[in-house]
Every structure is written in C-alpha cells, then in structure tokens.
C-alpha cells in the first residue's frame, strides 16, 4: 500500500516546487498543502528544523527540500537503482542546483539594480553558457540518462520554467537537447494539467 504523503509549503513555487513536479510527473498521489505566513509562524516551533517545506510520510515529518525531492524522485520511479547511474544523476542535479541558487540570489536577494545588472550579465554570458554546454554534452538520448526520465530532467524543467525564464535574453534554443527535455517534461499530461491550475 502506498504511503500517505502530505507536502507543506507556502503558496509559491520556491523550495517545494521540484518535489511537487516530481510527484506530479510520476503520477504519485500527494496532498499539496499551502500555508500562509501566519500559519507557518504558528506551526514553526513544531517543525523538525523550524522551516518549510516539510513532507509527512504516513504522519512522520521530514524536512530539507532536496532530501524531499530525492524521495519524491524515488517513489515516482525517477531515480536510478544502479549506484553509478544514481551518481551521474546526482552530479547533474547538483549542477542544476548551483545554477538555481545563483539565479535565485540575483532575482530575490540582489536589491541594487547596478549590481543586479552586472550579475545578470555574468550569468547570461559566462555561467550559463559554460554549464549548459556541459549539461548538453552529458545527454545520453531523449533524457539525460537515455530513454527514461529521472530527477535530473524534471529538475532542468523546474530551473528553466521558474528561474531562467525570468531573465531577458535567456535562450535555451542554443542547447537543443536540453530544450528537448524541457519540452517533453512540459508536455507530460500530468504536468500540463498541473501547470494549467490557477
């Protein structure tokens, strides 16, 4: 019997969106709970690390967004059983996470417009071309690991959809294999329905 899953976060994409997308892509039933700031304040003291997101698995509470996302990938059939293949997926995942952190820092934490412009230029002209070219070279077929989607593919979609598209001048078409992954994930029936929700 499948465990009862309850994912709790704020009503934004943020640090819970990757897990939401992984569960959704894999057709895994879960309760998607969205809380307000005051609601979080009331529950904060009871949380393992005093932060969100949390995932409840049959009532047991777990924290840390990437730990939750890896679990989501595993139960969704999006994580390799083979240790070396898993290592490769994790290598790609960490590369994507580094890019997401850099992008988020620019978007949300850099207030000075001149500094933001400088960091954006570096991201678009140096950081992204280097990393995306490396990721493009790692592609082994339709997806990063061949013909089967993994955590890495959904994570790439999440990075592009929720972070990189925010930057004027970002162009994924220079990396057709990566662009193909994004389109395949986006066209998944479960993902299409999820994105169509208000």
TrEMBL record:
Domain GST C-terminal, chain residue ranges per copy: 82-198
GO biological process, one term: glutathione metabolic process
Residues annotated as domain GST N-terminal: 3-80
GO function term, MF aspect, one: glutathione transferase activity
Gene3D superfamilies found in the cross-reference section: 1.20.1050.10, Glutaredoxin
UniProt cross-references to InterPro entries, sorted A to Z: Glutathione-S-Trfase_C-like, Glutathione-S-Trfase_C_sf, Glutathione_S-Trfase, Glutathione_S-Trfase_N, GST_C, GST_superfamily, Thioredoxin-like_sf
PANTHER family: GLUTATHIONE S-TRANSFERASE
Record's protein name: Glutathione S-transferase
Organism the protein comes from: Globisporangium ultimum (strain ATCC 200006 / CBS 805.95 / DAOM BR144)
Organismal lineage: Eukaryota, Sar, Stramenopiles, Oomycota, Peronosporomycetes
């Amino acid at each position: 019997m499948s465990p009862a899953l309850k994912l709790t976060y704020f009503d934004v994409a943020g640090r819970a969106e990757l897990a939401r997308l992984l569960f959704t892509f894999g057709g895994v039933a879960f309760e998607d709970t969205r809380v307000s700031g005051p609601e979080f304040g009331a529950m904060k003291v009871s949380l393992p690390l005093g932060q969100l997101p949390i995932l409840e698995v049959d009532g047991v509470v777990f924290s840390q967004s990437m730990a939750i996302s890896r679990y989501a990938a595993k139960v969704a059939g999006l994580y390799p059983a083979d240790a070396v293949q898993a290592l490769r997926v994790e290598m790609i995942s960490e590369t994507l996470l580094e890019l997401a952190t850099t992008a988020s820092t620019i978007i949300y934490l850099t207030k000075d417009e001149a500094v933001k412009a400088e960091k954006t230029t570096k991201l678009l002209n140096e950081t992204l071309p280097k990393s995306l070219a490396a990721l493009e070279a790692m592609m082994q077929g339709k997806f990063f690991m061949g013909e089967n989607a993994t955590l890495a593919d959904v994570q790439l979609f999440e990075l592009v959809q929720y972070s990189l598209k925010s930057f004027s001048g970002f162009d994924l078409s220079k990396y057709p294999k990566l662009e193909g992954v994004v389109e395949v994930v986006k066209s998944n029936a479960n993902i299409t329905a999820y994105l169509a929700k208000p």
